[in-house]
Write a structure and sequence with these properties.
Chain lengths: ~400, ~250, ~170
């Protein structure tokens, strides 16, 4: 296999146009942030029942996808798969970009974002949230070093080590993200150890879907050759991940359906939950999993870039649906304080809570995506991130054999 | 964090407290018992883990439709001064919950507030340590370091916490509260530190219900300790094993 | 000649009128207006308080919050007992929203003050304890609300109000 040649992307009209578009989205997000923080959270759809809303769905999606986006690099570095190695730089950059995008949204939704420094100076080490702060920062640092070892030949000897460390760290990080919910004993929908591994597989799936779209868009917009070998390999892997997520979701629901205690919340999500039930069956299962699986593996669509792109987009959509069901749906179902009783109070006890996101929340959420994409675009512009060619004869180690 | 150490027990002086509290129950008139909570600690003395403040709610004395404790709480802490928030966004420290058993039809009415757990989930999850438990068992939010992430609200099994959704003015001096922080029942810590009873307990007694009693669960001679020793009482979500400071009788 | 005299007298008049302001406010240097406090002596010397009040407050805040130590010295509540604008005095100078000791100085110095996002800006009046005492109490409460709202706005928009203080 020849040495891969990396090149910055060009800076034509398209580059600045895209950057301007993303800039507008980012500015809109910042305005939304200032508006919500200045007036207070009463202008959002969130309340004392649904305490985490749309911004958190976006933030957690981006954070989960971030650790998954690193997978392509990890497979190349840690498991020595040659076909993935040229993609490692883009994969690592995307991981950093997505994480920063997600964290920005998370932080800008705090009640007191002006006190962010407190989150760095006061630590409660029993809190998984506090651990996540360390995990996020550590991930950024490790992946930055990892990228450095790929860019700078003088530190190449640390490449394997950095790649391995980043891989292990990302597994711990997603375990931490899943545990934010898995360790919540209070709520019916959470309190399940399966959240940690489920979030890891979700990260594989969402992260790779985002990576596929970014890669295909980059190579299409920069007119660089992208061979079928790379695309085919990645889309097959993506399909496996999607099926993996489905498996974990199934086990989670089956386990809870077995316990009478959880029948209420399961009936809510799976049957009676209205918008959440639709988000689950139509958004997450049908459009987000089964349809992409069919598209990725059906001979008629599985070899088409267009349909692979559609499948990736659907997986991302399904990811948002899944996180909406987990986050919002999990909060919409009331806490069970008094099993066996019908409950009523002035504080929404025993009531199915409703939530409709306000515009600023959604704008803030989308700006997180824009931040990630802007970092990606700028990163590929100033650094040699993307291989000049991913044509089969360059990228496929088995080409011509 | 290091300056938030639990009080140094060795430095404290406890002599005579047990005796004083034991003598604090006084019969004023037949059927009217006045229990001093405990003698107020000196203002410069840190609270001690020898005390575990708690409440016992006798649901058989708590009547459907009575809101005296809630009203007293709102007044005491200056709650309900939001001008923009929706009803679902307004702060409630204490609420009356009406129960009807789906199978037996049994009904209960009872107040629910922060249960002041011995091992509070809100304290476990708080990233900055703003959610904390005082040595004497009262669970509070240190708003000086609360960043408003609301993870404690996700973690509380009792739905006891509220988030302040707007800028507030005209707070009561003893209950500072403001936009962007989470808050909950303080067990009227400002009163307790003065040796007074929480506002809800006082109001419930003044209303003639006497459904809530307050006291030191660790002091065997206190009324609350005697009552929980003599009669069956339970915790809400006892399955979680949180050993709450607020207990219920007759549920 | 007549015209010159006229101009001169006008100039003298203008100077005379502005003289107290210039002298009282320390010449051309803008100074914060600091309302007088109750009592003769603060808990520490003025120089110490100017430099270290935040340290005292922070230390006391943690002791009160976490250990239930409720001594009055260094407590914000006690600060406000002396330094809060007395009702009569604020009404007299007609600038209620600018009569707050802490806020005035912090706005002047351009230092963000976070205390009053949550803490009461003034001690409780007896009227609030006994709403039935006087018919004026309702009116008082109404004005108090606007007072503290204005105060909060002032705190939030420190930079834009800084200019306002400088012109006083």
């Amino acid at each position: 296999m020849k040495n891969t040649k990396f090149m910055e992307i060009g800076s034509g009209k398209g580059f600045y146009g895209l950057l301007a578009l993303l800039g507008v989205a980012i500015l809109a997000g910042l305005s939304a942030f200032f508006y919500m923080e200045h007036t207070g959270h009463w202008v959002t759809g969130m309340d004392n029942q649904i305490v985490w809303g749309a911004p958190h769905v976006f933030a957690i999606f981006l954070i989960v996808a971030a650790s998954g986006a690193l997978n392509v690099a990890s497979i190349g570095t840690v498991f020595g798969k040659k076909i993935y190695q040229p993609l490692a730089r883009m994969s690592a950059l995307l991981a950093v970009a997505l994480l920063i995008g997600g964290l920005t949204v998370l932080v800008l939704d705090l009640g007191r974002p002006d006190r962010l420094i407190v989150a760095m100076t006061y630590y409660n080490f029993k809190s998984i949230f506090a651990w996540n702060i360390i995990l996020y920062n550590g991930f950024l640092a490790l992946v930055a070093v990892y990228i450095w070892t790929m860019l700078d030949p003088t530190v190449k000897k640390f490449y394997k080590l950095a790649g391995f460390a980043a891989f292990v760290w990302r597994l711990i990080l997603t375990t931490g993200t899943g545990s934010i919910f898995g360790w919540l004993v209070a709520r019916q929908a959470y309190d399940a150890a399966i959240f940690a591994p489920m979030f890891i597989v979700m990260s594989f799936s969402f992260g790779l879907a985002v990576f596929m779209l970014v890669m295909m868009a980059t190579y299409s917009w920069t007119d660089r050759p992208l061979g079928d070998a790379v695309v085919r390999r990645l889309k097959n892997l993506l399909g496996v991940f999607v099926a993996g997520v489905l498996f974990f979701v199934m086990v989670y629901h089956l386990t809870n359906l077995y316990a009478t205690e959880h029948h209420g919340v399961q009936a809510f999500i799976l049957r009676d939950g209205g918008v959440f039930t639709q988000a689950f069956w139509i958004g997450q299962v049908l459009l987000g999993s089964l349809l992409p699986l069919a598209l990725l593996y059906h001979p008629a669509t599985g070899n088409s870039r267009f349909w692979i792109g559609i499948a990736s987009a659907l997986i991302i959509l399904g990811g948002f649906a899944q996180l909406t069901v987990i986050l919002i749906g999990g909060q919409a179902y009331p806490l069970v304080l008094f099993p066996g009783y019908e409950v009523s109070s002035s504080f929404a006890d025993g009531v199915i809570n409703s939530y409709s996101p306000s515009l600023p929340e959604l704008v803030l959420g989308f700006s997180g995506i824009a931040i990630a994409m802007a970092m990606m675009v700028v990163g590929m512009r100033v650094l040699r991130m993307a291989p000049a060619s991913l044509a089969d004869e360059v990228a496929d180690p088995h080409h011509g054999k | 964090m290091s300056d938030h150490k639990q009080p140094d027990l060795a430095r404290r002086e406890f002599l005579g407290r047990g005796a004083a509290a034991a003598a604090a129950g006084v019969v004023l008139a037949p059927g009217v018992m006045l229990y001093g909570v405990a003698q107020a600690k000196p203002a410069d003395e840190p609270v001690s883990s020898k005390v575990r403040w708690g409440m016992l709610v006798d649901t058989s004395k708590c009547s459907n439709g009575c809101n005296a404790c809630v009203d007293a709480c709102n007044k005491e802490h200056g709650l309900g001064n939001e001008t923009h928030s929706r009803d679902t966004q307004r702060t409630q420290y204490i609420r009356k919950v009406e129960l009807r058993h789906k199978f037996t039809g049994a009904t209960h009415s009872l107040p629910v507030m922060c249960q002041h757990c011995e091992t509070p989930p809100c304290v476990d999850v708080c990233p900055t340590g703003a959610s904390f438990k005082r040595a004497d068992g009262i669970v509070l939010v240190d708003r000086h370091i609360c960043i408003g992430c609301r993870y404690c609200m996700m973690a509380c099994p009792y739905k006891a916490r509220s988030f302040v959704h707007e800028a507030l003015t005209d707070q009561r001096p003893h209950t500072p509260r403001g936009k962007g922080c989470v808050e909950s029942c303080t067990m009227c810590v400002h009163r307790v530190d003065e040796g007074r009873q929480p506002a809800c307990v006082e109001a419930c007694a003044a209303d003639g219900s006497h459904a809530i009693i307050f006291g030191d669960l660790n002091d065997p001679s206190s009324e609350i300790a005697q009552r929980v020793k003599t009669y069956a009482s339970s915790e809400i979500r006892a399955d979680l094993g949180l050993n709450t400071g607020v207990r219920y009788q007759g549920l | 000649m007549k015209r010159l005299l006229q101009l001169l007298s006008m100039a003298v008049l203008a100077l005379t009128l502005s003289a107290p302001a210039l002298a009282g406010e320390g010449g051309r240097t803008p100074l914060p207006s600091i309302p007088a406090a109750k009592g003769d002596q603060c808990v520490e010397d003025t120089a110490v308080m100017r430099r270290d009040h935040m340290k005292f407050l922070k230390h006391h805040r943690d002791a009160t919050m976490h250990q239930g130590i409720r001594t009055e010295k260094y407590s914000l509540k006690a600060c406000l007992e002396c330094h809060a604008p007395v009702e009569g005095a604020t009404a007299a100078n007609g600038k209620t929203e600018e009569g707050h000791f802490c806020v005035n100085c912090h706005v002047y110095a351009g230092v963000t003050l976070d205390c009053f996002e949550c803490h009461a800006t003034k001690p409780e009046t007896t009227a609030q304890f006994h709403p039935l005492v006087s018919p004026a109490s309702a009116a008082l409460k109404a004005t108090e609300r606007t007072d503290s709202t204005v105060l909060l706005n002032r705190l939030v928009g420190v930079s834009e109000n800084k200019a306002g203080v400088a012109h006083e």
